[in-house]
TrEMBL record:
PROSITE patterns with a match to the protein in the record: HTH_GNTR
Gene3D superfamilies: GntR ligand-binding domain-like (1.20.120.530), Winged helix-like DNA-binding domain superfamily/Winged helix DNA-binding domain (1.10.10.10)
InterPro entries: GntR_C, TF_FadR/GntR_C, Tscrpt_reg_HTH_GntR, WH-like_DNA-bd_sf, WH_DNA-bd_sf
Protein name: Transcriptional regulator
Residue ranges of every copy of the HTH gntR-type domain listed in the record: 9-76
Pfam families according to UniProt: FCD, GntR
Alphabetized GO MF terms: DNA binding; DNA-binding transcription factor activity
């Protein structure tokens, strides 16, 4: 019985990770009902294990169970958005400050003695610029999430990285409530580039300071758009 319980819990965590990823990627939006049979097939688990995943996601505030109707993706309100941005500033800026003083070479490339993770950041920013120029806003949103996750991952802390995954899923839900998410993303493509520029130069403190102001501005834009 103990082994069955452990297996269900591990499978539930895997299901939660899958659904969380779908939310972060914008594939599941606020108020959308989760189709149990489809997710059982996607996750390759039993219904009981999937429901354990739902429980984990409900604890995180990403889904809600409506009696006699089913499980739905949460629809964030203004208070939730403010809370998420407060936590994002602590986690994302804190992760960059944790790396302050590490000293990566300008440009971030391996040939310059830099961190390959910074090369990934620069590539993500480049792809976001191209997608924005073509008006592919859903793709810009995906890349924006990836940039934010990547600079948290630079801290090398699995706890910070895990916290960022949950927070970014909540942030993507907030973006999906906006009438013009492209307008929000377009405003911050170059902000991301400036933060990454500081990271590539090893200026993690400056990157964190810039990001903190950026997240305050983003919070204001999202909240204003929701009202």
């Amino acid at each position: 019985m103990h082994n069955v319980t452990v297996t269900t819990e591990l499978g539930g965590q895997r299901c939660a990770r899958t659904v969380r990823g779908l939310i972060t990627a914008g594939r599941l939006g606020p108020g959308e009902q989760l189709v149990e049979q489809s997710l059982v097939e996607v996750c390759g688990v039993s219904r009981n294990t999937l429901r354990e995943g739902y429980r984990i996601l409900a604890d995180e505030g990403l889904v809600v169970h409506v009696p006699h109707r089913g499980v739905f993706v949460s629809s964030p309100g203004v208070a939730e958005v403010r809370d998420v941005y407060t936590a994002r500033r602590v986690v994302e800026c804190g992760a960059l400050r944790e790396r302050a003083g590490a000293g990566l070479a300008v440009g971030g490339g391996p040939a310059a003695g830099g961190d390959p993770a910074v090369v990934v950041l620069e590539q993500l920013v480049g792809r976001a610029r191209e997608a924005a120029a073509d008006g592919r806003w859903s793709e810009v949103g995906d890349l924006n999430m990836a940039v934010h996750q990547q600079w948290v991952d630079l801290a090398g802390s699995r706890w910070l990285s895990a916290a960022a995954k949950g927070l970014l899923a909540h942030a993507r839900l907030a973006f999906r409530t906006l009438a013009d998410p492209g307008g929000l993303h377009s405003a911050f493509v170059e902000e991301n580039a400036r933060v990454v520029g500081h990271v590539a130069a090893g200026e993690f403190g400056a990157a964190a300071d810039l990001l903190e102001g950026y997240l305050h501005r983003a919070e204001g834009l999202v909240v204003d758009a929701m009202r």
